[in-house]
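Its record is retained below.
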Amino acid sequence: MAGMASGTKITDMGMDSLIHCASFLNLQDISNLSLTCKYLNSLAYSDSIWRSFFRQRWPQQEPSSISERSSVREAYITRNFDVQQFKFVDPFAADILTDAKPFDNLFINKNDIVFSQGPAINIMKIDSFLKRREPLLTLRDHSARVSCMRFYSLDETSLFRSETQRNEKVLVTSSYDHSIRLWWKGNCQRCFRGHSGPVTTLSDKLLGEGSGKVFASGGDDGTVRLWSLNLNGKRGQHALRATLYGHGKPLVLMSVAGHKSSLLVSMSKDSKLRLWDTATSSSSSSCCVGMTSIPGAPVGLKCHESLLFVAAGSSVVAIDLRTMKKVFSTPYYPPSLFSFEILPSKSLICTGGMNSAMLWDMRTFSETVKTKPLGLLDGHIGPVKFLHMDRYKVVSGSPEDPFVNVWESDTGRQTNILACNPTGGLHSTTGGSAIAVNGCEIVTGSCTEGQGIIHYRNFNYATSQVLAEENEGGSKFWGPQHCSDSYESDS
């Protein structure tokens, strides 16, 4: 039997050698490693590996300097929760001064802050801005207000050239000047024309599979139009793949189904919904595979897998796209909703109303028993039109409220209150006109009579935690954070 001896196994290596090898892995790799066997699970939980992760992300701190923990891994996960939930009073902060115009769109796209004011699109690279290396890049090709902005993967367009561009995105914008423009590297690469009126909305994702993917637009003319992202052909209307008719009112919202990438849901101003299978045919009559309507004015529209979540009037309705039948709805929220977000991974819905928002567990909805919200997110002034929700937090705000509120997504407990216009402090009366959140970063846009202000905050390197009753807004102290087994550092 000696001749049949097997070769050396990974578990035959010493723990110190394995720890050295594991130091080259990322968090997801370590998570996968912990699921293989007991021996490698103990490796994945070792303080040496997690101390390395901790120092890489927070080089100015040591786990022992935060509090007494049973392991470095728990210290890492706890601090990650704290920075993701903005539980600090000393984030890195910086301002961008702009024209005194409302912010119509505001996004954080990796290293870029992208926002529009009227017809102008502004792009600021965060790292360059913080180092004062370059001015704000302004794109002025549109001649009327920008109505919608979307980011699509560069590798799904003909602009893609090499693997080094795999994570880059192109910006697509629609405008009241009847046009759509595709931007990359600070230049307009293509202008799409075809709508007979203002273009009001764009699909949240690309439609189709492979190299034939398209994006959709909706306009005041009541049509849905499908456009190719292949830029190798002729310019102009040759990019137009199909025009879909059926809506009698202007289009306001669009979303692509999660279970089938060729399905597009569109919603018009009269709250009528149409489901289109864009792979079926170029004929608009055969493309429409479902219709329904929701009472009340349109507020929001989002797809997840085969479910469609529609916010209109005073409630959110979930519809099964396979049958176009109602699955459940939230209780009525008088007088009306102004915003909503969903977090399907935790079965959560957040709805913004007048002076407050509500957090719901969609698993508790019933047609026979009145459902109570998981949490009441109150203390706002005016309609809560701005909502962001991820696995760590809910961020809520109002155009009439000078403060943005931050809450734990699991419990609805408040973690912080942030001024939209930091120069005004606690006595500011300037409300926000736009909010964007990405992980531990938040950007607020506010406008005074004299100037517009983009305020950027990054909580990743913050050290001073919010204390009980620290400010007049009543930020609350929280107890010890439960440490999840998840190693994700982003939402």
Observations:
- The two ends are 53 Å apart (CA to CA).
